[in-house]
Amino acid sequence: MLLALVGLGLAGCASTPVDTTPPAATENPNGPFGKPTGTSRNTRVGFVDPPAAQAKLIVVNLLPHSGLKNGEIVVSRMANLKPTSVLKITQISNRTALATVLRGEPHAEEEVVLPSSDLTKAAQELPERRPDS
C-alpha cells in the first residue's frame, strides 16, 4: 500500500509542469535597486557653479562618484526638469568639472544630469550657443 501511494505521489509530481520562466521584474521603491515612483531616469552628476554660470566655460560641482569622463555630454535643467543647456565636459579635477556650453544657457545651481534619450531630444531644441558668447 505504501508503495502504491509513493508511486501515485511520484506520478502526480511528474505530471505537474514546472514553470522555469523567471519572475517578472518589478520596481520596488524599498528594494536595494529600486527607485521611488516618479524618480528621474537621468542620473544627477552635479550642479552648475553660481559664479561661472554666464561664462563660456562653466564650472560644474560634481557629486561624489559621478563617474563623469572628459568629452561626455550632459544637460543642465531647472527644478521643473526642463533642460536649459547642453554641456560638453572638457576637464575634470577631483569633484570639479569644466564644461563648454553647446546649446542654451545654464543658470546658477541648476542640476546637471546624464540625459536620457527624451531629455536629449528636448535639449536639442534649445538655441545653439553663439561662438562669440
Oligomer: single chain
Helix content: 10-25%
Could you report the average pLDDT, rounded to the nearest whole number?
Answer: 77
Please tally the β strands and state the result. 6
CATH topology of the domain at 40-126: Elongation Factor Tu (Ef-tu), domain 3
- Total of helices: 2
CATH class of the domain at 40-126: Mainly Beta
Based on helices, strands and strand pairing, what is the structural class? alpha+beta
The ordered string of helix (H) and strand (E) elements is HEEEEEEH
Beta-strand percent range: 25-35%
| Low-pLDDT segments, ≥5 res | 21-28, 31-35
The neighbouring-strand order within the major sheet is 1-2-5-4-3-6
Précis, in short:
With 133 residues, this protein is an alpha+beta fold.
Question: What does this protein look like?
Answer:
- This protein has a domain at 40-126: Elongation Factor Tu (Ef-tu), domain 3 (Beta Barrel).
- Strands 1-2-5-4-3-6 form a six-stranded antiparallel barrel.
- Strand 1 (43-48) and strand 2 (57-62) form a beta hairpin.
- Helices cover 16% and strands 31% of the residues.
- The longest helix is centred in the N-terminal third of the chain and has 14 residues, at 2-15.
- The chain is α+β, with helices and mostly antiparallel strands.
- The N and C termini lie far apart (93 Å).
